[in-house]
Amino acid sequence: MNVYDSDRMADVLAPIGYVATDGPDDADMVIINTCHIREKAAEKLFSELGRLRNIKEHRLEHGKATVIAVAGCVAQAEGAEIIKRAPYVDIVLGPQTYHRLPEMVARVSRAGKGRQKNKGILDIEFPDEPKFDHLPEVTAKGFSAFLSVQEGCDKFCTFCVVPYTRGAEFSRPFEDVIAEARAVAAGGVKEITLLGQNVNAYHGETVKGETGSEAGLGRLIRQLAEIDGIQRLRYTTSHPADMTEDLITAHGDVAELMPFLHLPIQSGSDRILSRMNRHHRIDDYRRVVDKLLMARPDLKLSSDFIVGFPGESDKDFEATMDLAREFQFIQAYSFKYSPRPGTPGALMQDQIPEALQSERLAALQALLEQNQITFNQQCVDSVVPVLFDRHGRKDGQLVGRTPYMQPVHVQAPPNLFGQIAAAKLTAAHANSLGGELAGSVNHPMPTSEIERVSA
């Protein structure tokens, strides 16, 4: 989401003459776009701001002004503190107000900021109208694109700050999403990843402004698959409680929808899931996965885990380890619980000691890493479609991704850059694969080893 937002900020600044630079030393404006999910985000922000302050002062000595802006969720949550601790920051704006950046830059220019320590602009109020209504038409950047379709969350998990920094759930109108997808497809994009804090809660209006004319993510995916040039579709991040029947069947009906789904579970313990206010139990998760596998047997999963949530016992943690063994996630993100100010989890009394959190996280990550390595090894000798979208470090090398998001390094001619071509996977590494060009896709990836009867 922050990659998408950063690109859109660049889009809104382009009409007033701003273009990207290689680094902050030669930049007239620097924007730090922040995320507030982890505890150390604010600390990292102020450390980076200190470095930018030195650059700003050095440029000022040579008669060059530098505008410093802080955007994103840390700005939303701690805007006043940023202005107080770093008075050399010119603009602080939230994730819902970046469409107003040109106006803020103009105000900075009029006030002569960017040159001296004056009180910065703070704009973190949620607007009456969605920011998307005021953004310029998106431009394609590369062969894969992010497309934001949903923002905010109404789930209020007790560990999560998103409802407070991104606001309530909002879904973009159906036709607005289709129009943006058509625009990037016309620019050469072949793969679109649909984004949302809770993306499968999407319920966009099919007739803009008409209440009740709503469609879910499954219907949106089917419509996007009809756009010329779009060959791959993905979506993230999803919530198990919002996996509708229509969305599940889309995994079997839509060939363009890749057989790889990020479906966060967070814990293998029902007791901890309840304390997290996750709105689902382990058996609910199993039933969803069963249905997904019936629709698309070659589907693979990635997930999120939080270790050391308040009150997590040894038994609770072992249940998480058992679940990781059961589902054999081919990728996963795992973290120690990090209290976020203002969330219910931060107020719980039975916090887990840091040392125990670290011990549990190391054990879980070792298991998750082995699952990923095992899957990569199982893929060797498969012939799969790869979208080559990057140049490798070696001469004549292209890098692309399989349907399962695995990076593949292949010696390939330059005319395949930006194309989907068959590659035989020849070597497995912890985080990537080696391959060689092949004539066609003729060897399927291993199907799931999770065998249960759908409830």
What does this structure look like?
With 455 residues, this protein is of the alpha/beta class. It folds into 3 domains: 2-123, Rossmann fold, CATH 3.40.50; 131-375, tm_1862 like domain (pyruvate-formate lyase- activating enzyme, Alpha-Beta Horseshoe); 379-437, OB fold (Dihydrolipoamide Acetyltransferase, E2P), CATH 2.40.50.140. The chain has 13 helices and 19 strands. A 5-stranded mixed barrel has the order 15-16-17-19-18. β9 and β10 form a beta hairpin. The protein is globular, with a radius of gyration of 23 Å.
Structure characteristics:
single chain, 455 residues, alpha/beta, Rossmann fold, pyruvate-formate lyase- activating enzyme, OB fold (Dihydrolipoamide Acetyltransferase, E2P), 3 domains, four-stranded parallel beta sheet, 13 helices, 20% strand, globular
Strand content: 15-25%
Distance between the termini: 34 Å
Kindly report the average pLDDT value.
Answer: 91
Task: Supply the helix-strand structural class.
Answer: alpha/beta
In short:
The protein is 34% helix and 20% strand. The chain has 455 residues and is of the alpha/beta class.
SSE blueprint:
Layout: H1 2-13, E1 29-34, H2 41-61, E2 67-72, H3 73-85, E3 91-93, H4 101-111, E4 121-123, E5 144-148, E6 150-151, H5 162-165, E7 170-171, H6 174-186, E8 191-195, E9 203-205, E10 214-216, H7 217-224, E11 232-236, H8 245-253, E12 260-262, H9 270-276, H10 282-295, E13 300-307, H11 314-327, E14 331-336, H12 344-347, H13 354-379, E15 383-391, E16 397-401, E17 407-411, E18 420-428, E19 433-437
Parallel strand pairs: 1-2, 2-3, 3-4, 5-8, 8-11, 12-13, 13-14, 17-19
Antiparallel strand pairs: 6-7, 9-10, 15-16, 15-18, 16-17, 18-19
Helix pairs in contact: 2-3, 7-8, 8-10, 11-13
